[in-house]
Amino acid sequence: MYVQLTIFLVACWGWGQTVLKWHYAALPTRAPLSTSLGMGVVICALQALAILGQLVPIAVLAVLGVGVCLAVGYGLRLLSSVRADATESRIGFQRSKAEQFILALLALFLLPLVVVPLGPPLAWDELMYHLPHAREWALSGKLQVNAWLRYPWFPYNFDLLFAAALMLDNDVLPHLLHAATGAITAWLIYRLGVQHLRDRAAAGLAALIWVLLSRSLYGWAYVDMSVAMFILTACVALQEWHTSGACLVSRDRRWAFVCAFMVGVAAGVKYQVLALLPLFALVLAWHDRRPATWLGVVFFLCLPCLYWYVRNAVMTGDPF
Question: How many CB atoms lie within 10 A of CB 40?
Fold first, then answer.
């Protein structure tokens, strides 16, 4: 099961690297950022397949296979530079005792979380609607409204990954997928701490706090940690956009588009994310009011989530 999860994450990293190939500058958060972004791309691909009624194993494997091929290509290119950087970093590098203690504590709390997701589905929400909806989509090969299940009109972006996992006749893999988003969030928090605080002990402590706060969710096929990962990725992209240039003209608006896309993926996972839209809109309006920027942001925001709301509006008269 962990082999399957690794293949999936490698594919996500490959897709994310492809999206970010225009950004060549060194970025400490690039690896977790690419993985999270690639997961959003895979979700969009699965959503498109399901809308077309082609959510079948061969199509899902094709999406992941292309991602793995992309990852292998980028990996071979990065291998030589990583080796050179590793050789240089070994010289004179020594972890402080505080950092060693924090990292050991983090490993101590993470170790049980490797085993927790391996249990069968037992939690209320995953049995009542997350996995049943995913099972119906996996069986039918398309997105359908299952009115006999709880919350049939909810946006279910992340549950599309559960459907893909159930196609492999594996009801534990959804646990691992959700747990992976928690691990990626911890990884991203750690890299952000290293980047902005220049203190690995503080970065490890921040990641440890996240793990402690979220530890009860690693054994369930829920979506809450995925929302946290996508929104944190959106915040990182927004910060990169803000710092990408000293003035408005020099800022790289592609980071704003990445931010909008990740918020859109999250809005296609839970309705509650819509409450955060005014915050992102306010930050964007404060710094950039050019029509081209806003058109791009609206497009990438709607791309991963518009289907759910349009479907609800057409079929029920209420998008929410």
Answer: 29
Nearest CA to 68 among 16, 1, 21, 141? 16
Interatomic CA distance for residues 6 and 10, integer angstroms:
6
- Nearest-angstrom CA–CA distance, 239 and 233: 10
- Tokens 């030589």 correspond to 80
3-class SS of residue 185: helix
pLDDT tens readout for residues 58-79: 999 999 999 999 999 999 888 8
Helix and strand numbers, DSSP H then E, in the chain: 14, 0
What ranges in 116-199 are assigned the alpha helix state H? 124-125, 131-140, 159-166, 173-197
Amino acid of residue 299? F
Q: Which two tokens stand for residue 250?
A: 């020099």
pTM of the entire predicted model: 0.95
Which residues are CB-neighbours of 234 under 8 A, at least 6 positions away? 258, 259, 260, 262, 263, 266, 280
- Predicted confidence (pLDDT) per residue in 115-139, tens digit: 999 999 999 999 999 999 999 999 9
270, 277 Cβ separation under 8 angstroms: no
